[in-house]
Amino acid sequence: MKELQALIFDVDGTLADTERDGHRVAFNKAFADAGLDWCWSVERYGELLSVTGGKERIRRFLEEDHPGMLAEPGIDERIRELHAAKTRHYVALLEGGAIPLRPGVQRLLDEAAAEGLRLAIATTTTPENVTALLEATLGEDGPYRFEVISAGDIVPAKKPAPDIFTHALEAMGLPAEACLALEDSDNGVRAARGAGLEVVVTTNEYTRGQDFAGALAVLNGFGEPDQPASVIRGPELPGSVVDVRTLRRWFAGA
């Protein structure tokens, strides 16, 4: 029987619903600051989420909506500056308490720590964004609850490439067969599976219609007693929430 030793969490959409009312809003504020008339609607941002990474998302937008700008001198630096401005706005939103953790996340983190499971993060968002979210929602010690935080440009290829998960595994010194990834998107599932990890998915507004091929289980969230989780695809959920005991059972049966 396989023994679960660690949980590796994605951030955006998994720990918190950060995309629609966090990152999207911050991008639009950065564009306005730069004197650009771009405004990403909820629907347009959902389309751009097929690309992982903020700088990569801006570049895809230019390819599709303003292709001539890609030939302008200094465009790479301008993209970096826009993304840096977006990060500042996003951190300000977090510090203002605008983005809470998803239901069940803190409960699951507490249970995992109490049962001796090791915790890590593997995400395409920047380290600054991760730290700001964890401090805003879990307190100043929030980032230290995770043994490893693999984030942003620490690897050259972002999800759906497996590199960020491979980096986290190597940093922990654990094989994929001892760890479970927790994701919210098809790109995340493909990345985790590419690194040899089993994956449990909690969907959100932007990802609930995706395929999630290869996921161990797909749910609408981790759940709380007053906000029960439900299984969309996969093994039966024995109670109203996803807890460590359930994750261990699913993992052992995979």
Q: What is the helix tally? A: 9
Measured on Cα atoms, how large is the radius of gyration?
A: 18 Å
How many domains is the backbone divided into?
Answer: 2
Tell me the strand percentage band: 5-15%
CATH topology name of the largest domain? Rossmann fold
Overall outline = globular
Average pLDDT figure: 96
Order of helices and strands: EHHHHHEHEHEHEEEH
Q: Give the low-confidence spans.
A: none
Spatial strand order of the main sheet: 3-2-1-4-5-6-7
CATH architecture of the largest domain, please? 3-Layer(aba) Sandwich
Distance between the termini: 10 Å
SS class: alpha/beta
Please report the total strand number as a whole number.
7
Give the CATH class of the largest domain. Answer: Alpha Beta
Largest sheet: 7 strands, mixed
What percent of residues adopt helix (DSSP H or I)?
40-55%
Under CATH, the homologous superfamily of the largest domain reads HAD superfamily/HAD-like
